[in-house]
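Practice problem 4.
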């Protein structure tokens, strides 16, 4: 197996390599190269260009590489992550690579690992946010929930794209089987995380509703406790000369005592009914 690094944005270089690999009948047109490059900038996918040529694009937030497999020749985009080049050298020296598709599977594992790290980071953030919501729901948490939800949906989409890539180029090898199983397992984790985000959003809404209910309950109790005071002050605030206690020496004392008695009765009723 030959591994070569080429510029996938150069139509001439791609076709020059194809000629050297005895694939003259499979020369790629400029329009085809441009279409593949345009599509590969947006997502991961694989396309069988001919019986002997397969184009693969693997893309996530940390790794984006384009690959051409021509017979037993592995053509790698020179604009790929430089760390990937070191990984390939390590795989070759460890004798893990026996064919082009073995190398492709190892790159698939590397790409999947980046996505797994992202998912683990989101899971940690969700756990922390869930504790915050249960302890003290705040308005800013809603924005964090939506942000994490969008991130999870994006990761789920990336995993789906990776799965479709390797399903299309099915190879009955141990590495391929392990990779597909790992991708499917991670896809299940992403789906569960999406459901968890939905549950978290519902929990947040329930917590905010409870908080609003507590505020309304407090205001209602406060208004009810103050109601007797309002009634008494309104009554004695009327401008009539014949009002009771108005000329009595201890009138104010009786007034304040009446207020204390009425408020105490209201509070006692609330406590008996366990309203607070």
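Answer key:
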């Amino acid at each position: 197996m030959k591994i070569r690094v080429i510029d996938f944005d150069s139509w001439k270089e791609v076709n020059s390599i194809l000629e050297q690999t005895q694939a003259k009948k499979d020369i790629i047109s400029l329009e085809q190269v441009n279409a593949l490059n345009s599509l590969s900038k947006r997502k991961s996918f694989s396309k069988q260009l001919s019986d002997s040529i397969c184009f693969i694009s693997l893309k996530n937030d940390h790794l984006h590489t384009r690959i051409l497999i021509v017979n037993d020749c592995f053509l790698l985009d020179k604009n790929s992550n430089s760390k990937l080049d070191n990984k390939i050298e390590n795989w070759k020296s460890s004798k893990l690579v026996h064919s082009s598709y073995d190398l492709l599977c190892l790159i698939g594992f590397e790409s999947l690992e980046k996505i797994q790290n992202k998912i683990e980071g989101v899971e940690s953030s969700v756990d922390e946010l869930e504790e915050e919501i249960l302890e003290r729901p705040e308005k800013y948490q809603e924005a964090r929930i939506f942000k994490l939800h969008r991130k999870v949906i994006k990761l789920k989409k990336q995993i789906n794209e990776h799965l479709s890539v390797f399903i299309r180029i099915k190879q009955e090898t141990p590495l391929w089987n392990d990779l597909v199983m790992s991708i499917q397992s991670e896809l299940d984790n992403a789906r569960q995380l999406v459901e968890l985000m939905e549950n978290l959003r519902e929990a947040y809404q329930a917590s905010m509703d409870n908080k609003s209910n507590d505020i309304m309950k407090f205001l209602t109790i406060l208004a009810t406790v103050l109601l007797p005071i309002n009634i008494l002050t309104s009554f004695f605030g009327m401008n009539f000369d014949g009002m009771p206690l108005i000329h009595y020496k201890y009138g104010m004392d009786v007034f304040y005592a009446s207020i204390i008695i009425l408020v105490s009765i209201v509070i006692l009723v609330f406590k008996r009914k366990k309203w607070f």
